[in-house]
Fold each of these.
Amino acid sequence: MSYLKEVKKVTTTGLQSMKMQGEKIAMLTCYDYTMATLLDAAGIDVLLVGDSASNVMAGHETTLPITLDQMIYHAQCVGRGANRAMVLVDMPFGSYQSDSSIALASAIRIMKETGAHAVKLEGGEEVLESISKITKAGIPVMGHLGLTPQSIHQFGSYGIQAKSDVAADKLLKEALMLQEVGCFGLVLEKIPSDLATQVSEKLHIPTIGIGAGAGCDGQVLVLQDMLGMNADFKPKFLRKYADLGNEITRATSSYIQDVKQAKFPSAEESY
Ligand code: KIV
């Protein structure tokens, strides 16, 4: 028998109850083991192994280049560090768009090889068949509408989506379709806050916003952005909770100075 107290893990039904009880859901992206242990210990509800790893971890301009194997590697690292939090993994570009059998095979690989709890994929009407197949296999799926970065070349910019009445109507209809087909939640990215509030009120599944205002049932940010590790990235929706970029530069400069001046290591730091 374990002497450790069992933690109450965050589940899809747990997130649903949070929505019903009006408790907001806190989600952050995470791509590695060390950060996963820290965020989990702080009490984060959901760790999103986002395909933004393509930008943040690999330095690509878009999320398009990251592969399924690379996403699986990041998800395995995060999974080893998560205890209480739900681990949700983005299905990368190319792993689900071509047909629903390929989508199911990709989702199964993620679940089998990483121990993650759920997958997320982008799109509306065009991905319904895939979502239906994946959820029928017992895999929870989170949808993602609004600005869907895997379609950046179609959008042409990372600007706000669904601004016209027609586009807002389409988004609302697609949100309802995603719920109908079995999604347990929905990310709403960069849409007007009135629309996000309306969608959140109409759906019984939780909505998680990024640049979608306070009416969503939860919020998500890219970890490195909210920790202030990317000085040049300052969209209106981003709140920086730390200035780690400057702190890391300061610590690194001190270390370099100490090494150059033979001040590190000291006698106490030596064997
Ligand atoms: O990959 C990602 O970081 C995301 C969030 C922005 C929602 O999908």
Note: Residues 244-260 form the longest helix (17 residues).
Amino acid sequence: MPTLTPTPRLPLGDDTFLLVLTGAGVSADSGISTFRAAGGLWNDHKIEDVASVDGFFRDPLLVWQFYGERRRDVAAAVPNAAHRALVAVEERLGDRFLLATQNVDGLHGRAGSRRLIELHGSLLRSRCTVCDRPPFADAGYTPGKVPICGRCHAAGRDALIRPDVVWFGELLPDGALARIERFLDDAAAGRLLFLAIGTSGLVFPAAGLVDAVKARGGATWLVNADAAANDDRFDRVLRGGAGELIPALCS
Ligand code: OAD
């Protein structure tokens, strides 16, 4: 059974390997909407309309409007105290730290996190739906327009550009899970600790990381504002806001 406690401190020793998983809740204090809360993004939009390949080809204008609004929100946001506290822990632990985020908002990178895996891609990149040109930096949005690939156009075909985010039914970015596996292997040399922050525990494979860590004997902590679907998988559960709890936990 999870225990509810006042803010303790993470047991960070010289041999601790810390794997952190973040979700939308870590950016809530930066003013970014979460997905499943009342009033969250999935309240006003159907997942299959704006977060699937089929939805994109059915109505690319709607999908670009959705991600264009997200780009606008992110441009107006700044990293909060939780993002910054994770940077400080990374500076302390070096290669014994790894941060996997489900967020596409880029706020961890802007705060200064470097050992970072963006499991669901990035809102701030786009890519072609046809050709193999690499994803490119792109924070723009023109209402009422769906961008077309210039390279494909020059080759005589029209191809739509899409945001470089992972949609439901798609694979995670190349190497993302392998990098986490390597980190878990390296952690056999020390003590493995897993900290999940601000995630409802509903979307896999991220929601399964807690069990991967437990299978290797690691300790598991969760910081979340409300109950998560996988609460009972964690050794310690702290209920509250990440912006307040994470700096205290990591101090
Ligand atoms: P959710 O919106 O499902 O869950 C966010 C969680 O954060 C909830 O459990 C809240 O209780 C918690 N929360 C809210 N504010 C918080 C705060 N200030 N501090 C701490 N916790 C807080 O978001 P995710 O779990 O990230 O995927 O969603 C996972 C994936 O589902 C997303 O990456 C997205 C979505 O569909 C794709 O679009 C592929």
Note: Residues 1-32+79-120+172-251 form a domain with the Rossmann fold fold (CATH 3.40.50.1220).
